[in-house]
């Protein structure tokens, strides 16, 4: 049996209100996320979308994580297009090796039973 252990997330961002102090610059929220700019532009990895109840909604992978996550919020062909309003938390895992990304994504979809993933699903 193969034992796979998911790493700890490199970044977790949540939807939240922005609290400004005098002299602070207001950050324009991206679909309710004000920390979106913290997601790496250059690195590959996997990402998890969760709702407010901490239920796993979707697992994805990308060569450039921020760009792919952004597409899920803006694209008309995203499997998440009907469920964007449910996303409350995003976990980002920086994983450069494409084979490792593939393995972790498939493993996470099936062991954690991501609600809206339709590809790579081996459970019913």
From TrEMBL:
Which keywords are on file for this protein?
Endonuclease, Hydrolase, Nuclease
Looking up InterPro entries in the UniProt record yields: GIY-YIG_endonuc (IPR000305), GIY-YIG_endonuc_sf (IPR035901), GIY-YIG_UvrC_Cho (IPR047296), UCP026568_excinuclease (IPR014527), UvrABC_protein_C (IPR050066)
Source domain of life is Bacteria
Q: Does the keyword field hold RNA-binding? A: no
UniProt domain GIY-YIG: residue ranges: 42-118
Instruction: Select a single GO molecular function from the record's annotations and give it.
Output: endonuclease activity
Enumerate the Pfam families for this protein: GIY-YIG
The record's section on PANTHER family has:
UVRABC SYSTEM PROTEIN C, UVRC/OXIDOREDUCTASE
Q: What is this protein called?
A: Nucleotide excision repair endonuclease
Organism listed in the record: Lysinibacillus louembei
């Amino acid at each position: 049996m193969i034992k796979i252990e998911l790493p700890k997330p490199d970044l977790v961002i949540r939807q939240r209100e922005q609290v400004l102090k005098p002299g602070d610059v207001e950050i324009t929220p991206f679909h309710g996320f004000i920390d979106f700019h913290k997601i790496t532009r250059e690195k590959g990895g996997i990402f998890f979308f969760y709702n407010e109840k901490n239920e796993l909604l979707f697992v994805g992978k990308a060569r450039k994580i921020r760009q792919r996550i952004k597409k899920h919020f803006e694209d008309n062909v995203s499997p998440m297009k009907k469920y964007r309003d449910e996303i409350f938390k995003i976990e980002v895992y920086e994983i450069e090796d494409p084979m490792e990304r593939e393995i972790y994504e498939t493993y996470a979809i099936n062991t954690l039973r991501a609600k809206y993933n339709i590809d790579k699903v081996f459970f019913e």
